[in-house]
Design goal:
Helix content of chain B: 10-25%
Largest sheet of chain B: 5 strands, mixed
Largest sheet of chain A: 4 strands, mixed
Number of domains of chain B: 2
CATH architecture of chain A: 2-Layer Sandwich
CATH superfamily of chain A: OmpA-like domain
Oligomer: heterodimer
Largest interface: A-B, 28 and 43 residues
Shape of chain A: globular
Strand order of the largest sheet of chain B: 4-1-5-6-7
CATH topology of the largest domain in chain B: Neuraminidase
Radius of gyration of chain B: 24 Å
CATH topology of chain A: 60s Ribosomal Protein L30, Chain: A
Number of strands of chain A: 4
Number of strands of chain B: 31
CATH architecture of the largest domain in chain B: 6 Propeller
Chain lengths: 190, 426
């Protein structure tokens, strides 16, 4: 079974090609800097038309750029599919049984893609003190990491960062918002 | 004890706060350590300069005195022209008239402005016997007139209560979660102490004002830094993996903080000059928010060793550890009063996070706030006030202060964004 896992993951990867999956939630650093820029996103199109070379863009260039764009989007989609947040009960850092399949899927994908490095962010809802929540977020991120390590993912590939209650995903002061903010969030990099 | 019981108990113990402080030298009009205290009625008629009325100065003084929680400031509408045309010297004041308005203290002042400087000649009278309590001159650059008024307010508070006021104090805090700011209590003179524009938490300034310790995400992960204000240089940094948080100075050079990484949490003390680091406590799970009794013999901290976060105390001499909080299952953010007679903390009760106080042995806990998310209590250097952050409804997090018995809650208007983790400048 263990030997099958990478195969399954590879299959899943293939299947996910062309699937229209939701874009990956941005990592926290990006989210903050975007907010700081007043919501403006940098227009990073696939082809930046260079000054003085206007008109020199051939059909071929465009096709190549389009191909590149599609390849990246597919990669991002594949990544996103395996990077699903897991959630925690109030003041708890135990992984919920509901989230075990999420972690198994993530571990399988990581095991099949050894070049990928993972950052686990630990987050909390606003009902708590700043300092304790920062420690709690650390524990949540580590609980997720420990589970992935148990499933064979190399210890060194996973970094953890706690954001406590300082970077909530969902604004608002409702039970619904709180539940969504008590989470571990996964960010993949090379 | 169940949650509801402890709240009841807390409310029932309505007025234990400490023994009466007898202050021999000062003319004590009231005492906030007692169960109730009476506010003094003070009149601050418009100050005058040779040319014109300078009511913006007397109005700010009135505002300061009102904010202090010790005074009722007589409204101007009570004073007719007879009152307003009076001089500032004792002979020209009709104390019986002021007394008939219920006024107990009277502050008069003349204003002089020359070049770019301003001075105030102020007089404080006891209306009941017409005695002069003080005559004091204050001077400042014209642009700094507000701080001059705060100093006068603190002098009046000293006369009336036996201890200097806090109106000329400055507070530092995190604004918009991204930088540390300092500001006067009235929002004047606000400026940045850091300019990283990155997530920053737990700022703590050393007792002599030389160092600033904080946890910043400026390197993409939370690291603990200590910088020297004067040289703006980094004197210490902990870049180990894990969450470093809760910086608290034990003395001018020694900083305590907690590290949570892996199975264990550790509370360290570090001499930021020699870099010598010691383990004060290491345990499984979470340890954070160390705070020290004024004599340095006790360390309170937060641990989840019995489930939810609770407050514990470690005797630094014997090493003995005792649990202090037995109410509810969420108690955090402890802070000792400067005299060591109280510990302020945060407790989760009925969904709200409330600022509470208890005696250093954990007894006589009282809830001081009224709903919302309140955090980071810190006593004023005089011990009479508690500074904290408060968020209610859909509002922003604001810095507030109150008297240590929960009376006189005031919101400070400092900067526009969320303001958190306040403390008084040393």
């Amino acid at each position: 079974m263990k030997r099958l896992l990478p195969l399954c993951a590879a299959l899943a990867l293939l299947l996910s090609y062309g699937c229209a999956s939701k874009p990956a939630p941005a990592p926290i650093g990006e989210r903050i800097s975007r907010e700081a820029e007043g919501g403006q996103q940098k227009g990073a199109g696939p082809v930046e038309v260079q000054k003085g070379k206007e008109g020199a863009v051939t059909e071929e260039d465009l096709a190549r750029a389009e191909e590149e764009r599609r390849r990246r989007a597919e990669e991002a989609a594949a990544k996103a599919q395996h990077l699903t947040d897991i959630y925690f009960e109030f003041d708890s850092y135990n992984v919920r049984p509901d989230d075990i399949p999420v972690l198994k899927d993530l571990a399988a994908w990581l095991n099949a893609n050894q070049a990928v490095k993972l950052t686990v962010e630990g987050h909390c809802d606003e009902r708590g003190s700043i300092e304790y929540n920062l420690a709690l977020g650390q524990k949540r991120a580590e609980a997720a990491k420990d589970y992935l390590v148990k499933l064979g993912v190399g210890d060194k590939r996973i970094k953890v960062v706690s954001y406590g209650k300082e970077a909530p995903l969902v604004p608002g002061h409702t039970e619904e918002a709180w539940a969504k903010n008590r989470r571990a969030h996964f960010v993949a990099g090379q | 004890m169940s949650k509801s019981k402890w709240i009841l108990a807390a409310l029932a113990i309505s007025a234990w706060i400490g023994a009466t402080a007898a202050l021999a030298d000062a003319k004590v009009y009231q005492d906030i350590y007692g169960q109730s205290y009476k506010r003094i009625t003070i009149a601050v008629p418009p100050f005058v300069s040779t040319e014109k009325e300078r009511s913006e100065i007397s109005d700010l003084l009135g505002q300061d005195l009102d904010m202090s929680g010790f005074f009722v400031v007589a409204p101007r509408s009570m004073m007719d022209n007879d009152f307003l045309s009076e001089g500032v010297d004792r002979k020209s004041i009709r104390f019986d008239q002021w007394s008939s308005l219920g006024v107990e203290l009277l502050c008069k002042a003349t204003v002089e402005e020359k070049d770019n400087s301003i001075s105030l000649s102020s007089y404080l009278y006891d209306v009941t016997d017409g005695s002069l309590l003080f005559a004091k001159k204050f001077g400042a650059a014209s642009s700094d007139w507000r701080r001059m008024v705060h100093r006068l307010a603190d002098e009046i508070i000293l006369q009336a209560t036996g201890e200097r006021g806090i109106m000329s104090s400055r507070v530092y805090f995190v604004s918009g979660r991204r930088d540390v700011y300092v500001s006067d209590l009235d929002g004047g003179g606000a400026r940045k102490l850091t300019s990283y524009d990155k997530l920053i938490v737990s700022p703590s300034i050393s007792p002599d004002g030389k160092y600033l310790a904080f946890t910043s995400y400026r390197e993409g992960k939370p690291c603990l830094y200590v910088s020297d204000f004067e040289t703006n240089r980094e004197v210490f940094a902990d870049r180990e993996d894990g969450m470093k948080i809760g910086a608290m100075w034990m003395d001018k050079r020694t900083l305590a903080y907690s590290l949570t990484a892996g199975r264990f949490s550790t509370i360290y003390s570090v001499n930021v000059e020699t870099k010598e680091r010691k383990v004060l406590l290491r345990k499984e799970g979470i340890l954070t928010s160390p705070a020290f009794s004024p004599d340095g013999t006790k360390m309170v901290f937060v641990s989840d060793m019995y489930g939810g976060p609770n407050i514990f105390v470690k005797d630094m001499v014997t090493g003995e550890i005792k649990r202090l909080s037995y109410f509810g299952n969420y108690n955090t953010s402890p802070a000792y009063s400067p005299k060591g007679d109280l510990i302020a903390f945060v407790s989760k009760t009925e969904g709200a996070l409330e600022i509470c106080v208890m005696k250093p042995d954990g007894s006589d806990a009282r809830v001081l706030t009224d709903g919302g998310v309140n955090d980071s209590p810190r006593f004023s250097p005089c011990g009479r006030y508690i500074l904290y952050s408060s968020q209610k409804g859909n509002g922003k997090t604001q810095i507030c202060f109150m008297l240590r018995n929960g009376d006189n809650k005031r919101v400070l208007r400092l900067t526009g964004g969320d303001a958190t983790q306040p403390n008084f400048m040393p």
